């Protein structure tokens, strides 16, 4: 798979970078340690050397070459001496000391001594200072630097090991980390491809290990949930339109067909046309209600949310419907406490509460008492529309919010069964939850409104009004 | 009265032309946006009825050009675009009213007349008067002759709208939108209930019928009793 191969090369590239970085830092560390150790040891050796060299030189200056030779002989008389001293004449002859004659060289240097002189039988490294006395005699004063060289090479060896292990660990770690990172990226890619391929149920697994990636995955999942909701809404509205408009359209067609074959007088035709017009209006009402519900569910109205005075809105609803209730010998009262500001779409909320009140007016029966109540606490407001009518049986309560659902006893009254579906859609958009309870007798519809500054648009609320 | 109709559907255009002409309104028809715009800029109309979905140029951009040219003729959208935001978008582009297809001819007629009246209306009024009813917008009082009539806020708003359109028909939908800000079709008799209360308050102690019901159209506040 091309995608996977690309991811593999990406893994390798990341690992190489990581290895390089680790190796470079190990090298830097090693070099620094080596340099510090080298300097410290050289300084120590130089102290010994300059003490001996000082003694030889002062002998030479006070009593001449013979005294210098004597000093050297005294210094080298100790058998287990670590010092390496040579006094050599201008013509290259060894005058005194425990080193063989060598090519004169001034300054601090080290060399491998071939001779098994003094206590050391093996070849060893000598570090020392060469200088010429005023009469041209060459003087070399040094120390057996073998222990120092051994420590130095041990440091080098340790760091070679450390670099080796570091590189291996870096390679393994790099592969592991980048592979897990890229595997997750790959999981995201695969999920997105699955969605493109039409498997809308796929979601990106969230591991709670890499915070950034988890956030990305969750956001993408939320987005997919939103898309799924939209698709579901679209599917629902298409099937609703197909089902629920086909039935009345068929009826209309049958009525017209019957008129064509049976009607004889102008009066009869007029009657049929009248009924046909009524049918058309009913169909159009259902049609626009379905469209409106799907439009609300698509969530585009979120952009027009603004803070609004909830009791004020409810007072307006009460003022609009009070005369209507009165005409049915019903009473419409309000209990609106305090100030509650909610975020929402005024037009839609007016429609939602109007629908609830209209529902109460239409189904509670003559003489019923209807009340609109609003109470707010610091984190939620509850609006209740309570009536003293026959209520809704418990078994039917969930269903009434579905589309085109009507209670058996309501089938004789006008209405298309979309009022509460619309209410549910508006509530869902606002993330309000609706509950139906017994008002004993009657129905109590409560709308719980969470009071918060912003409405989270990404996640669907857990609601009881769902389909 | 002269009305410009910009509508691409031939059948709808014929239906409207016939319906408005029957009411004595002169209708000029343009079948697309481009010719509609040039008609609007040349002619002197009382109102323009504009479809939003037109071939060539859409109604919204036609209206924007009309407004840019400084023509303030009232415009009524007649459109199948029923989206919640479509109305706001349309009105923000400079439209004055919005009627969704399918529509009743009586509704269109009432709205066109209400718009045409706006062109000739007195700009600022603090008192509205018709028959012997007077409404004072500043003092918020209503009097019949010398008698003060106490109205509830909703009734006051309803009467105000009726008086502004005294002598012509206002439809139920126009009242719902303008008086109560309701943009949906209520399933209860909101308009009728308020109307009957207002009527009985206005006519208490007299037998003058101030508000007439026009069957199939709406209501009419009589200009003269």
Describe the model.
The complex is a heterodimer of chains A (467) and B (225). Chain A has 467 residues and is α+β, with helices and mostly antiparallel strands. Chain A is 55% helix and 16% strand. Chain A has three domains: 2-113 and 120-151, Beta-Lactamase (2-Layer Sandwich); 211-296; 305-450, 2-Layer Sandwich (Heat Shock Protein 90). Chain A has helices at 2-63, 65-75, 146-196, 211-262, 266-297, 310-327, 346-363, 419-430; strands at residues 83-88, 94-97, 107-113, 124-132, 138-144, 306-309, 331-336, 341-344, 369-376, 380-387, 433-438, 443-450. In chain A, helix 1 (2-63) packs antiparallel against helix 3 (146-196) and helix 5 runs parallel beside helix 8. By secondary structure, chain B is of the alpha/beta class. Chain B has two domains: 2-120, Rossmann fold (3-Layer(aba) Sandwich), CATH 3.40.50.2300; 127-221, Arc Repressor Mutant, subunit A, CATH 1.10.10. Chain B is built from eight helices and twelve strands. In chain B, helix 6 crosses helix 7 and helix 6 packs across helix 8. The model of chain B has no long low-confidence stretch (mean pLDDT 89).
Annotation keywords:
A: 467 residues; alpha+beta; Beta-Lactamase; Heat Shock Protein 90; 5-stranded mixed sheet; B: 225 residues; Rossmann fold; Arc Repressor Mutant, subunit A; 2 domains; 5-stranded parallel sheet; 4-stranded antiparallel sheet; 8 helices; 12 strands
């Amino acid at each position: 798979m091309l995608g996977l191969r690309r991811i593999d090369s990406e893994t390798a590239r990341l690992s190489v970078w990581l290895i390089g970085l680790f190796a470079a830092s190990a090298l830097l560390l090693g070099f620094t340690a080596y340099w510090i150790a080298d300097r410290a040891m050289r300084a120590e050796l130089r102290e010994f050397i300059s003490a001996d060299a000082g003694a030889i030189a002062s002998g030479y200056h006070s009593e001449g070459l013979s005294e210098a030779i004597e000093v050297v002989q005294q210094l080298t008389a100790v058998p287990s001496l670590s010092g390496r001293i040579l006094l050599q004449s201008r013509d290259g002859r060894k005058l005194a000391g425990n080193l063989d004659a060598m090519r004169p060289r001034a300054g601090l240097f080290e060399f491998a001594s071939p001779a098994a002189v003094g206590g050391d039988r093996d070849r060893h490294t000598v570090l020392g200072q060469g200088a010429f006395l005023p009469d041209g005699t060459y003087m070399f004063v040094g120390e057996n630097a073998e222990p120092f060289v051994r420590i130095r090479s041990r440091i080098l060896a340790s760091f070679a090991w450390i670099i080796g292990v570091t590189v291996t660990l870096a390679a393994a770690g790099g592969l592991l980390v980048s592979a897990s990172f890229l595997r997750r990226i790959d999981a995201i890619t695969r999920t997105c491809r699955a969605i493109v391929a039409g498997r809308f149920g796929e979601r990106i697994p969230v591991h709670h290990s890499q915070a950034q990636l988890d956030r990305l995955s969750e956001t993408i999942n939320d987005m997919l949930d939103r898309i799924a909701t939209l698709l579901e809404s679209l599917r629902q509205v298409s099937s609703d339109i197909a089902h629920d408009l086909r039935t009345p359209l068929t009826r209309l067609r049958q009525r017209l067909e019957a008129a064509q074959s049976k009607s004889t007088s102008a009066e009869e035709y007029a009657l049929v046309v009248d009924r046909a017009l009524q049918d058309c209006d009913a169909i159009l009402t259902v049609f626009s209600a379905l469209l409106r519900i799907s439009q609300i569910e698509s969530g585009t109205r979120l952009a027009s949310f603004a803070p609004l005075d909830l009791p004020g809105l409810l007072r307006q609803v009460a003022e609009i419907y009070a005369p209507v209730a009165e005409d049915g010998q019903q009473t419409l009262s309000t209990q609106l406490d305090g100030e509650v500001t909610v975020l929402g779409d005024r037009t839609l909320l007016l429609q939602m509460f109007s629908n609830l009140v209209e529902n109460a007016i239409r189904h509670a029966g003559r003489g019923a008492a209807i009340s609109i109540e609003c109470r707010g606490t610091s984190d939620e407001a509850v609006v209740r529309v309570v009536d003293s009518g026959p209520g809704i049986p418990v078994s039917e309560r969930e269903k009434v919010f579905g589309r085109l659902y009507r209670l058996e006893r309501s089938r004789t009254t006008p209405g298309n069964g979309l009022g509460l579906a619309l209410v549910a859609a508006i509530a869902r958009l606002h993330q309000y939850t609706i509950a139906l309870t017994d008002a004993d007798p009657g129905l109590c519809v409560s709308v719980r409104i969470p009071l918060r500054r912003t409405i989270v648009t990404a996640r669907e609320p857990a609601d009881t009004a769902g389909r | 009265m002269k009305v410009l109709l910009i509508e691409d559907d031939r059948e709808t255009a014929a239906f409207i032309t016939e319906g408005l002409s029957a009411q004595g309104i002169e209708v000029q028809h343009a079948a697309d946006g481009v010719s509609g715009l040039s008609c609007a800029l040349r002619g002197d109309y009382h109102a323009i009825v504009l479809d939003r979905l037109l071939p060539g140029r859409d109604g919204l951009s036609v209206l924007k050009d009309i407004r840019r040219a400084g023509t303030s003729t009232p415009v009524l959208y007649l459109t199948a675009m029923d989206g919640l935001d479509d109305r706001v978008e349309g009105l923000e582009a400079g439209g004055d009213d919005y009627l969704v297809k399918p529509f009743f001819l009586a509704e269109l007629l009432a709205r066109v007349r209400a718009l045409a009246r706006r062109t000739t209306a007195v700009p600022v009024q603090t008192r509205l008067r018709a028959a012997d009813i007077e409404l004072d917008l500043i003092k918020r009082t209503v009097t019949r002759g010398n008698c003060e009539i106490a109205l509830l806020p909703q009734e006051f708003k309803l009467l105000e709208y009726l008086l502004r359109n005294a002598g012509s028909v206002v439809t139920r939908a126009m009242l719902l939108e303008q008086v109560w800000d309701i943009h949906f079709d209520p399933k209860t008799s909101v308009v009728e209930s308020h109307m009957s209360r207002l009527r009985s308050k206005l006519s208490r102690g007299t037998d003058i019928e101030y508000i007439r019901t026009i069957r199939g159209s709406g209501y009419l506040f009589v200009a003269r009793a």
